[in-house]
Protein backbone atom coordinates (compact mmCIF):
# COMPACT_ATOMS: atom_id res chain seq x y z
CA UNK A 1 0.00 0.00 0.00
CA UNK A 2 1.43 3.33 -1.03
CA UNK A 3 1.15 6.54 0.95
CA UNK A 4 1.21 8.70 -2.18
CA UNK A 5 -1.51 8.54 -4.80
CA UNK A 6 -0.69 9.86 -8.26
CA UNK A 7 -4.28 11.08 -8.72
CA UNK A 8 -4.04 13.32 -5.64
CA UNK A 9 -2.88 16.72 -6.69
CA UNK A 10 -0.52 18.65 -4.43
CA UNK A 11 -2.60 21.70 -5.36
CA UNK A 12 -5.73 19.90 -4.09
CA UNK A 13 -4.06 19.00 -0.80
CA UNK A 14 -2.75 22.55 -0.32
CA UNK A 15 -6.18 23.99 -1.21
CA UNK A 16 -7.75 21.69 1.38
CA UNK A 17 -5.20 22.76 3.99
CA UNK A 18 -5.74 26.42 3.16
CA UNK A 19 -9.50 25.96 3.43
CA UNK A 20 -9.07 24.43 6.90
CA UNK A 21 -6.91 27.35 7.95
CA UNK A 22 -9.36 29.96 6.61
CA UNK A 23 -12.38 28.18 8.14
CA UNK A 24 -10.54 27.99 11.47
CA UNK A 25 -9.63 31.67 11.29
CA UNK A 26 -13.25 32.60 10.73
CA UNK A 27 -14.74 29.94 13.05
CA UNK A 28 -12.75 31.13 16.06
CA UNK A 29 -12.76 34.85 15.21
CA UNK A 30 -15.07 37.50 16.65
CA UNK A 31 -16.70 37.81 13.20
CA UNK A 32 -18.93 34.74 13.71
CA UNK A 33 -21.13 33.65 16.61
CA UNK A 34 -18.99 30.53 17.08
CA UNK A 35 -15.91 32.69 17.56
CA UNK A 36 -17.64 35.13 19.87
CA UNK A 37 -18.80 32.26 22.07
CA UNK A 38 -15.39 30.56 21.96
CA UNK A 39 -13.62 33.79 22.91
CA UNK A 40 -16.02 34.32 25.83
CA UNK A 41 -15.70 30.71 27.04
CA UNK A 42 -11.90 30.90 26.85
CA UNK A 43 -11.81 34.23 28.68
CA UNK A 44 -9.71 35.86 25.96
CA UNK A 45 -9.56 39.69 26.07
CA UNK A 46 -11.30 41.37 23.12
CA UNK A 47 -8.09 43.09 22.03
CA UNK A 48 -5.92 39.94 22.13
CA UNK A 49 -3.91 39.05 19.05
CA UNK A 50 -3.07 35.50 17.88
CA UNK A 51 0.01 34.13 19.60
CA UNK A 52 2.72 31.59 18.92
CA UNK A 53 0.19 28.76 19.15
CA UNK A 54 -0.86 29.72 15.62
CA UNK A 55 2.49 28.49 14.25
CA UNK A 56 1.36 24.87 14.51
CA UNK A 57 -2.06 25.42 12.95
CA UNK A 58 -0.91 25.45 9.28
CA UNK A 59 1.10 22.29 9.91
CA UNK A 60 -1.95 20.62 11.43
CA UNK A 61 -4.06 21.76 8.47
CA UNK A 62 -1.61 20.23 5.99
CA UNK A 63 -1.54 16.94 7.92
CA UNK A 64 -5.34 16.90 8.11
CA UNK A 65 -5.62 17.46 4.35
CA UNK A 66 -3.10 14.68 3.78
CA UNK A 67 -5.13 12.30 5.99
CA UNK A 68 -8.34 13.14 4.15
CA UNK A 69 -6.52 12.69 0.85
CA UNK A 70 -5.28 9.27 1.90
CA UNK A 71 -8.77 8.12 2.88
CA UNK A 72 -10.04 9.55 -0.40
CA UNK A 73 -7.41 7.62 -2.35
CA UNK A 74 -7.66 4.36 -0.38
CA UNK A 75 -11.45 4.30 -0.75
CA UNK A 76 -11.34 4.72 -4.51
CA UNK A 77 -13.40 7.88 -4.17
CA UNK A 78 -14.17 10.17 -7.06
CA UNK A 79 -15.44 13.74 -7.04
CA UNK A 80 -16.31 16.35 -4.44
CA UNK A 81 -19.18 14.44 -2.78
CA UNK A 82 -16.96 11.39 -2.21
CA UNK A 83 -14.27 13.81 -1.01
CA UNK A 84 -16.68 15.34 1.50
CA UNK A 85 -17.57 11.83 2.73
CA UNK A 86 -13.87 11.00 3.09
CA UNK A 87 -13.46 14.23 5.07
CA UNK A 88 -16.43 13.36 7.29
CA UNK A 89 -14.98 9.90 7.89
CA UNK A 90 -11.71 11.39 9.14
CA UNK A 91 -13.66 14.03 11.11
CA UNK A 92 -15.67 11.29 12.85
CA UNK A 93 -12.46 9.60 13.95
CA UNK A 94 -10.90 12.86 15.13
CA UNK A 95 -14.09 13.94 16.92
CA UNK A 96 -14.50 10.57 18.63
CA UNK A 97 -10.91 10.68 19.82
CA UNK A 98 -11.28 14.26 21.07
CA UNK A 99 -14.48 13.47 22.96
CA UNK A 100 -12.97 10.47 24.71
CA UNK A 101 -9.62 12.07 25.50
CA UNK A 102 -8.48 14.90 27.69
CA UNK A 103 -8.50 17.33 24.76
CA UNK A 104 -12.24 17.92 24.83
CA UNK A 105 -12.46 17.57 28.61
CA UNK A 106 -9.91 20.31 29.20
CA UNK A 107 -12.61 22.97 28.96
CA UNK A 108 -15.48 20.92 30.50
CA UNK A 109 -18.00 23.36 29.02
CA UNK A 110 -20.63 21.87 26.65
CA UNK A 111 -20.65 24.86 24.25
CA UNK A 112 -16.92 24.33 23.74
CA UNK A 113 -17.57 20.75 22.63
CA UNK A 114 -20.02 21.98 20.02
CA UNK A 115 -17.75 24.78 18.78
CA UNK A 116 -14.59 22.67 18.53
CA UNK A 117 -16.22 19.56 17.11
CA UNK A 118 -18.34 21.64 14.72
CA UNK A 119 -15.14 23.13 13.32
CA UNK A 120 -13.68 19.64 12.81
CA UNK A 121 -16.76 18.38 10.96
CA UNK A 122 -17.18 21.44 8.73
CA UNK A 123 -13.51 21.95 7.91
CA UNK A 124 -12.80 18.30 7.15
CA UNK A 125 -15.87 18.01 4.90
CA UNK A 126 -14.83 21.14 2.95
CA UNK A 127 -11.24 19.87 2.77
CA UNK A 128 -12.46 16.56 1.35
CA UNK A 129 -14.76 18.25 -1.16
CA UNK A 130 -11.87 20.40 -2.42
CA UNK A 131 -9.60 17.38 -2.70
CA UNK A 132 -12.28 15.56 -4.64
CA UNK A 133 -12.91 18.54 -6.87
CA UNK A 134 -9.26 19.29 -7.66
CA UNK A 135 -7.83 15.75 -7.84
What does the model show?
The protein has 135 residues and is an all-alpha fold. The chain has one domain. Helix content is 73%, strand content 0%. It contains six helices and no strands. The chain has helices at 10-27, 33-42, 56-74, 79-100, 102-105, 110-134. Helix 1 (10-27) packs across helix 3 (56-74), helix 1 packs antiparallel against helix 6 and helix 4 (79-100) runs antiparallel to helix 6 (110-134). It is elongated and about 45 Å long. The two termini are 19 Å apart. The mean pLDDT is 85.
Mean pLDDT: 85
Low-confidence stretches: none
The shape is elongated
Estimate the strand proportion: under 5%
Order of helices and strands: HHHHHH
Please report the total strand number as a whole number: 0
Distance between the termini: 19 Å
Summed up, the domain count is 1
Helix content: over 70%
Largest sheet: none
How would you briefly describe this protein structure?
With 135 residues, this protein is mostly helical. The protein has helices at residues 10-27, 33-42, 56-74, 79-100, 102-105, 110-134.
Summarize the helices and strands and which ones pair or pack.
Elements: H1 10-27, H2 33-42, H3 56-74, H4 79-100, H5 102-105, H6 110-134
Helix pairs in contact: 1-3, 1-6, 3-4, 3-6, 4-6
Amino acid sequence: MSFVYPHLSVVALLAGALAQFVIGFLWYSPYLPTGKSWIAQMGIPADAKPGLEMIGFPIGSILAAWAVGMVYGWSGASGPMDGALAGLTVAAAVAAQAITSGVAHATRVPPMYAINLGYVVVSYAVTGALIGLLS
